[in-house]
Write a structure and sequence with these properties.
By secondary structure, the protein is an alpha/beta fold. It contains 23 helices and 27 strands. The strands form five sheets. The protein has a nine-stranded mixed sheet with strand order 4-3-5-2-6-1-7-8-9, sandwiched between helices. A nine-stranded mixed sheet has the order 22-12-23-11-24-10-25-26-27, sandwiched between helices. Keywords: GTP-binding, Hydrolase, Membrane, Nucleotide-binding.
Length: 780
C-alpha cells in the first residue's frame, strides 16, 4: 500500500482549493470495551485516550492537532487544564468526570486532517452514556462504529435505530461498521447476522468489515481507510473550486499575454503556471482515487479473511469429575441400606414396602439442577461442552441456543427435541405508539407455513382481535400484505425479486387500528411430541444441530440431552438462550427454569463486562422475580455464581480489575435477594481452554459449585430422606413391639420377631452413622 501512502501525501495539493475553516469530525461509537479508545490511541500513535477492561470513557473526548500536549475539561462543575498525559490520566482515574467534554491537543499527523471524537460505550452503566454518544453522532461528519466479536444485540439495535433517524439528512456512506475480532478468529456467524440487522435498521446495504484492534496491520488498514475517506471529503469540497479555477485559466493566460512590462508579465505567467500545475496535480489525485480504492478494498477483504475462519477446537484433557466422594458414598450407603431391608425376608413383612421403594427411587434419581444463564456468546454452551468433553451443543460467535436445553446423565449420548401441540408466532408488536414488523419472525413464518413437510395440521390467523382458521396460501397472502404496508421503499426489495420487501419501517399504531392486518399466527402441529437423535453418529449429530436452526425458536418447546458424563451423576445442567438475543421468545421459559434451579451460573463476557443489558437482565431474573425464595439457604450457600468468561484474553491486571468491578457493581444489587453481608461469588474462567484441556479456572469454579450444592441443598435432601427412612424403621419396630405383647404367639414366632427387631435396631444404628456423615459432608 505504498502507492496509497504516496497518494495521501499528494492529496496535500487539494488543500489549497478548499475552505480550511473547519476540519471534518470523525466519531468513534459502539459498546464499551468494543475497542474504541484502543483504536483512537493506535490511530494517533500514542496512549492518550483512557483504556481499560471496565468502562473508562465517561465524557466526550475530542482530539485536535497541537504542537504539544494540552488537555482541557469543560462542561462540568469542575474545569481543569493539563499539560502532561500522566496528570490527565491520574485525574480521570480519580475523579471520573461524567458528562462534559475533554479537548486534547496532540502532535499527530492524522489530526491535521480531522478531529477524532472518542465516546463512552452506549451500554455502559453511566446513565448519560447514550446521550453523549448521540451528541457525538450529531456533530460527526463520519462515524466509525465498533461491534464486539459476538455482533449486534438488542441494546445496539435500539441505539442504531435512533442513530438511523439522526443520520437521515446525512450520507449513509459516511458510517462504517467494524466487527472487532479481538477474541481470536471469528466463525463468521455474528458478521452475517449483524449485516442483516443493519440493513433492516438503515434500509440499505451498509459497510461492515472485521478488524482486530490488537493487530497492528489491521489498525494500519483502517487508518488507510480513514485517510482515503478524508481524501474523498477533501475532494468533495475541492471539486467545485477546481472546476471554477480551471475555467478561469484560459482567460488569465489571455490577459497575461497583453502585459507589456516584462517583470510583471513573468510574475503573472509564473503564477498561472503554478495554478495550472496544481490543478493538473489535483486532477491526477482525483483520477487515481478509484484505483487506490480498489486496492484498499482488496486489502480489507484480505483482513476479513484473516479474521474469519472456523473454531473447530477438539476436546482434550481429563474429564471434569465431581470431588464429592463423601456425599456419593453416603448416597450409596443409603441406597444399599434400603435395598438390604427390601431383600431381607426377616423384616419385609413389618416394613412399609411402598414407602421404602419410593425412597429408593427418589434417592437414586435425585440430581441437582444447575441453570446456566446470561447474554448470548458469553460461552454458556462451550462451558457445558467443556464439562462433557464433547462438542454436543452448537456454539459460535452469534446466538446458537434456540430453546431451553436440559443436559442430564444417561447410559448413552442421545438428544430429544420436543415439538409443542401449538405455537404462536407474532409478526407485529407494539412499541410505544408505533407498530413494528418483526422481519425475522415474518421470514420464519413464511418458511414454516410454505414448507410441505413442516408437520402443521392447522393454521389460524389473528386478525381483528381473534384467531380464525386460514390455509397456507391465505396466510402467505396476508403476510405479503403486512410486508407491503411496512415496506421501507424500493430499496427494501430483495435482489432478483423486486416484488418482495425485505426491510421494513415503523408505522403509527393508530394506522393499523383501521386495517384488518395479520398480527400473529397460531400453528397446530400434526405430530407434537418428541424426535430423537443418536449423538454417537456424526451424521445424526449434524442433523441435530441443523434442526436447532434459525426457525427453531418458534417450533421447539424444549431440548433434552443425555450423556454418560461423571459430572452429570451429580447435577442436571440447563442451558438457556441468550438473554439479550433479538429473538426473546424463550425469555419467560428461561425465567421459569431459573426458578426451579438449585444453583445459578450467570455468565458475563470478560471483554465486555457487565453492560447495561446484563445488569437489567440480572435484576429482572434474580431480583424482581424473587428467584431465591429460601433466603436462609441463599444467604448461607451463595447459590448464585457470576462466571466471567474469556479470562484467557485478559492480562493479570485486567482480571483483577474485572473481578473487583463486578464484585462492587453487584454487591448492592444482591441485597435485594440476600440478607446479611455476603460477597458475590465471582469466578474467572476460559470455557474454551476448559474444552481443549488447558488450565482454565473451571476446576476452582466447579469445586465451589459442588460444595455449595452438596453442603446445603444436597445435605438437606439426604438428611430428609434419612429421617424418612428412620421414621419407617421406627414404625416397623413399634409394630414388632406391639406384636410381642400378644400372648398367643408361639416360641418360633417370638424368635422371628426378636430377629427382625435386632435387624431393625442394627439398621437404625447404621442409619444414625450415615446421618452424621451426611451432616458433615461437603468438606473438601
Amino acid at each position: 500500500m505504498n502507492d496509497l501512502s504516496a497518494l495521501i501525501e499528494k492529496c496535500e495539493t487539494l488543500n489549497g482549493f478548499i475552505d480550511k475553516a473547519a476540519k471534518p469530525v470523525v466519531a468513534i461509537l459502539g459498546s464499551f470495551n468494543s475497542g474504541k479508545s484502543t483504536l483512537v490511541n493506535r490511530l494517533l500513535g500514542m496512549e492518550i485516550s483512557p483504556v481499560g477492561i471496565i468502562p473508562t470513557t465517561s465524557c466526550l473526548i475530542c482530539f485536535d492537532y497541537g504542537i504539544s500536549f494540552r488537555a482541557s475539561l469543560s462542561g462540568t462543575s469542575k474545569k481543569a487544564v493539563f499539560f502532561e498525559p500522566a496528570h490527565l490520566h491520574s485525574y480521570l482515574e480519580r475523579e471520573k468526570p461524567a458528562g462534559g467534554r475533554l479537548n486534547i491537543q496532540v502532535p499527530s499527523p492524522l489530526l491535521k486532517k480531522c478531529l477524532l471524537l472518542d465516546t463512552p460505550g452506549i451500554d455502559s452503566l453511566n446513565k448519560n452514556s447514550c446521550e453523549l454518544a448521540e451528541k457525538a453522532a450529531r456533530e460527526a461528519d463520519k462515524i466509525i462504529y465498533l461491534f464486539h466479536q459476538r455482533g449486534i444485540e438488542d441494546f445496539n439495535q435500539l441505539f442504531l435505530s435512533r442513530l438511523a433517524k439522526l443520520w437521515q439528512s446525512k450520507n449513509l456512506g459516511d458510517i462504517s461498521f467494524w466487527l472487532n475480532c479481538n477474541l481470536g478468529v471469528s466463525d463468521g456467524t455474528s458478521l452475517a447476522a449483524t449485516a442483516a440487522a443493519l440493513r433492516k435498521i438503515f434500509f440499505s446495504l451498509v459497510r461492515l468489515n472485521t478488524i482486530n484492534t490488537l493487530d497492528a496491520d489491521n489498525i494500519e488498514t483502517l487508518r488507510l481507510f480513514l485517510e482515503l475517506e478524508l481524501i474523498r471529503e477533501t475532494l468533495r469540497q475541492a471539486t467545485a473550486n477546481l472546476k471554477k479555477i480551471d475555467l478561469e485559466i484560459p482567460a488569465r493566460i489571455k490577459k497575461t499575454a497583453g502585459i507589456k512590462d516584462e517583470a510583471l508579465f513573468l510574475s503573472e505567467i509564473w503564477s498561472v503556471y503554478e495554478i495550472s500545475r496544481a490543478v493538473l496535480a489535483a486532477g491526477q489525485v482525483i483520477h487515481s482515487i478509484p484505483v487506490f480504492s480498489k486496492e484498499l478494498t482488496k486489502q480489507i477483504e484480505s483482513m476479513n479473511s484473516s479474521n474469519l475462519g472456523g473454531k473447530n477446537m477438539n476436546p482434550s484433557g481429563r474429564s471434569f469429575r465431581p470431588r464429592t466422594a463423601d456425599i456419593r458414598a453416603n448416597r450409596q450407603a443409603l441406597l444399599d441400606l434400603i435395598r438390604q431391608l427390601l431383600d431381607d425376608a426377616a423384616v419385609t413383612d413389618y416394613l412399609d414396602r411402598p414407602t421404602l421403594e419410593r425412597l429408593y427411587s427418589q434417592i437414586a434419581q435425585e440430581r441437582f439442577t444447575i441453570v446456566v444463564s446470561g447474554g448470548f456468546s458469553t460461552g454458556k454452551s462451550t462451558f457445558i461442552n467443556a464439562l462433557l468433553k464433547e462438542n454436543l451443543l452448537p456454539a459460535g460467535d452469534g446466538p446458537t441456543t434456540a430453546a431451553v436445553t436440559t443436559v442430564a446423565g444417561g447410559s448413552r449420548k442421545r438428544a430429544v427435541i420436543y415439538t409443542p401441540l401449538q405455537s404462536v408466532i407474532s409478526i407485529i408488536e407494539r412499541v410505544g405508539d408505533e407498530a413494528v414488523l418483526d422481519s425475522g419472525a415474518a421470514a420464519a413464518l413464511a418458511r414454516i407455513v410454505m414448507t410441505g413437510d413442516s408437520g402443521i395440521s392447522k393454521l389460524e390467523a389473528y386478525v381483528d382481535g381473534q384467531f380464525v382458521p386460514a390455509d397456507r396460501f391465505k396466510i402467505a397472502g396476508m403476510l405479503r400484505e403486512a410486508k407491503e404496508l411496512f415496506a421501507a421503499g424500493a430499496f427494501a426489495r430483495a435482489a432478483g425479486d423486486r416484488a418482495v420487501p425485505e426491510v421494513f419501517k415503523r408505522l403509527p399504531w393508530k394506522r393499523l387500528a383501521r386495517k384488518k392486518l395479520l398480527q400473529k399466527v397460531r400453528l397446530t402441529f400434526s405430530s407434537p411430541g418428541s424426535r430423537g437423535f443418536d449423538l454417537e453418529k456424526p451424521d445424526l449429530l449434524q442433523s441435530f444441530w441443523n434442526t436447532l436452526g434459525a426457525d427453531s425458536a418458534f417450533m421447539i418447546e424444549k431440548v433434552e440431552i443425555e450423556h454418560p458424563s461423571d459430572f452429570l451423576k451429580l447435577a442436571v445442567l440447563v442451558d438457556t438462550p441468550g438473554l439479550d438475543w433479538i429473538h426473546r421468545r424463550h425469555y419467560e421459559k428461561t425465567a421459569r427454569s431459573i426458578l426451579q434451579g438449585d444453583a445459578y451460573l450467570f455468565f458475563l463476557n470478560g471483554k465486555h463486562i457487565l453492560n447495561k443489558m446484563d445488569r437489567d437482565s440480572y435484576q429482572d431474573l434474580f431480583c424482581t422475580r424473587q428467584v431465591c425464595t429460601d433466603e436462609a439457604y441463599v444467604k448461607k450457600s451463595g447459590g448464585l455464581f457470576y462466571v466471567i468468561n474469556f479470562a484467557d484474553t485478559l492480562t493479570a491486571l485486567q482480571r483483577e480489575t474485572v473481578y473487583n468491578f463486578v464484585t462492587r457493581a453487584l454487591a448492592g444489587t444482591e441485597n435485594k435477594v440476600r440478607s446479611g453481608d455476603h460477597k458475590p461469588r465471582v469466578f474467572l474462567i476460559s470455557a474454551l481452554q476448559g474444552l481443549t484441556g488447558a488450565e482454565s479456572g473451571m476446576s476452582t469454579l466447579l469445586k465451589s459449585l459442588e460444595q455449595t450444592i452438596l453442603t446445603y441443598r444436597g445435605r438437606n435432601f439426604y438428611l430428609v430422606k434419612a429421617n424418612q427412612l428412620y421414621a419407617s424403621l421406627d414404625a416397623a419396630a413399634l409394630a414388632i413391639d406391639s406384636l410381642c405383647l400378644e400372648e398367643q404367639l408361639t416360641a418360633g414366632a417370638k424368635k422371628s420377631l426378636r430377629e427382625a427387631w435386632e435387624i431393625l435396631r442394627a439398621s437404625k444404628r447404621k442409619l444414625k452413622d450415615i446421618r452424621n456423615s451426611i451432616f458433615d459432608a461437603g468438606r473438601f
